[in-house]
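Take a look at my tokenised protein here and describe the backbone shape.
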Amino acid sequence: MEEEAKTISKRPSRRVLLTVLIILICMASMALFACYQLVQAEAYSRFTGINNLSAEKISRIIRGTEMNANNVFDEVSMHLDDPEGVIAALKSKVNLNLDVRGYFAAFTPDYFPEKGTWFQPYIYQPEYGGFDYRQVGSGRHNYTKSPWYVQASLNGKSFWSDPYYYYDGTSMSGHYVTFVKPLYNAKGDLACVCGADMKFEWLAKELKWVDERSKNNKILNKYQVFSDQQFYTVVLNNDGSCLAHPEEKEFGITDKTMLKNLQQQKSGVADIDIDGEACTVFYGPIEFINWSVAVIVPKYDILKPILPLAVTFFVMVIVGMIIVWLVCKR
């Protein structure tokens, strides 16, 4: 009779333990899921903010470059009857923006007969600093066939060229983008196509500044569970190629949905693999130019705050079960 009574008493205890275990697991799972959603929302807010900061800073530089270049080009337009005046005009305001590596004015063939068929004065920053002048137009360098010249002469509007690589064996070699604007004489005929060349070095500096500022911002990181989240910012062209990036972080976008959004200048979030690592990409367009900024975050870093919470919930379930077992035993 005693053994039968013990068996009967154990059954309710086991049922109670099993019921409590199921309840605790359900509650812990629901809490963990809610925390996961909150972490995802916090990550979206944080990295979208970093993305917007980068895009705004770059767009201000782009807009400033356009304004400074237009000042130079307006000065050139006042000397379309004097080749020496054109050169002086290019030199006069060249210090307005040190991010610009050079200004040029490519005139239509034989516009100034005394200067020959090709006249393209170029004011640029050489290796030793300051600014220098050279004539770059020639029969070997027929700039009228260049895409930027053809587009400017056909559209009659200012624009930013597609990124390109220039090589001449000097420090001038590198990846460039050019702000282009056509100028017309008093008769309404195309006189020249002006341009301001920018190297991509300044882009890398701006991205590094934003990343460091975001990682070291005490207010931004005040309530972070982990303050060592790894992320970096890049600038993408509308074809998915990487224009500016930290060292050893170059990659291309192949995700079809993201590529479509880049071409249409839309914002979004995408999960892609970069060098075999699962990452989340927060991206958005840059105003005044057909580029986008993207903040790259390894998925593991986004989920870091979940790890201590999962451990905490697991310990709470174990402790809860021990307490219930002790109560049932008594």
Summary: Helices lie at 2-77, 83-92, 147-155, 201-216, 256-263, 299-302, 306-329. The chain has a mean pLDDT of 83.
